[in-house]
Amino acid sequence: xxxxFDFDAAVVGAGAVGLACGYFLALAGKSVVVLEKxxxxxxxxxxxxxxxxxxxxxxxxxxxxxxLCVRGRRLLYPFLQAHGVGFDKCGKIVVATSEEEVPRVExxxxxxxxxxxxxxxxxxxxxxxxxxxxxxxxxGLWSPETGIFDSHGYMLALQxxxxxxxxxxATATPFEGAEPLSGGGFRVRTGGDDPAELTVRQxxxxxxxxxxxxxxxxxxxxADQIPKLHYGKGVYFAVRGKAPFxxxxxxxxxxxxxxxxxxxxxxxxxxxxxDLQFVEAEDYDVDPARxxxxxxxxxxxxxxxxxxxxxxxxxxxRPKLHGPNEPQPDFxxxxxxxxxxPGLIALFGIESPGLTASLGVGxxxxxxxxxx
Length: 372
Ligand SMILES: Cc1cc2nc3c(=O)[nH]c(=O)nc-3n(C[C@H](O)[C@H](O)[C@H](O)COP(=O)(O)OP(=O)(O)OC[C@H]3O[C@@H](n4cnc5c(N)ncnc54)[C@H](O)[C@@H]3O)c2cc1C
Description:
The chain is an alpha+beta fold. The protein is built from nine helices and 20 strands. Strands 1, 2, 9, 10, 11, 12, 19 and 20 form an eight-stranded mixed beta sheet that branches. Strands 13, 15, 16, 17 and 18 form a five-stranded antiparallel beta sheet that branches. Flavin-adenine dinucleotide binds near residues 16, 36, 37 and 54.
């Protein structure tokens, strides 16, 4: 049967989440185009993060973050394995460095159990020491499901899957706007060197930091249903020399972020970060002056961190839906019940654990659209 539309679905944004949406829509047999304003895929939030596969420890009961992190992680490891994408299920330790921090680590353990995270164990100071001799802790929580991965390899694999099913990933193709068509579907305008118009039955906005702007470009999208975007910047400092630990090491989480933690990437480079600073615009500078706070903080759990070992490295920006000292809201997967436009799903506030959750988000979006 020939369709009246150019594509069944267009996805705005070729980050991990948009590509995962495209993948699940293509798996469902839909013709898909993913529109990306940059010249390459995965240049947004998905390229500036910790590349940690989160087990799903922290997120509140019943939240999309809790459900989709665990679901996404369970889908992600086999996907990476099947596509030859590098990962290391190295595990992580959430450490209490003082007796006062013990209840906070125990609270994480309780929440993680409710969230259905596998394999967790509260461990003694001696067990922490056996895992990481240089870490100072009075106890810890061991999470064997946590890992690290090559997030860019992952996004390339998603692109490959979409293209193998006849879909397209159009880079250097900014989404300029869309109008609902009277019989259903949307007329979509794209810009760039070769501006075009196309018709699609369904539209998914997965624009990361550009999601609010993209939603505002859809005719009829109620402005009061577009949540305010806050930029939650986080910087990383690299550790000179060999990675000091094999496992990831985290302090107990704070109210707005997971806290400055130790992570290493697939190339063996070690980092501490990210901190959290609310900024007014996209700005990826790393102020070397922030190193002082990093030394103070990290030495709580790694007293052996020597002077001069940290160097400014990179920054990322979380697409947050809350400002300073406000509670951290859930991911938003907004359908017609919210904005009144059938066939449209808009994703807002996809901050951490969005990379881990991406396959869970993609699966959910495809299921919601199958019903519409
Ligand atoms: C500091 C930091 C650390 C993090 N650490 C982790 C972690 O360890 N583990 C984890 O699971 N998650 C982590 N996250 C969260 C994770 O990185 C994000 O949730 C995830 O990458 C979001 O993916 P996305 O596809 O929604 O956004 P993006 O990757 O930003 O993709 C959106 C895309 O849309 C494009 N776009 C925007 N507007 C338009 C338009 N008008 N037209 C066309 N294209 C457009 C952008 O160019 C971009 O490529 C971290 C985030 C930060 C900032």
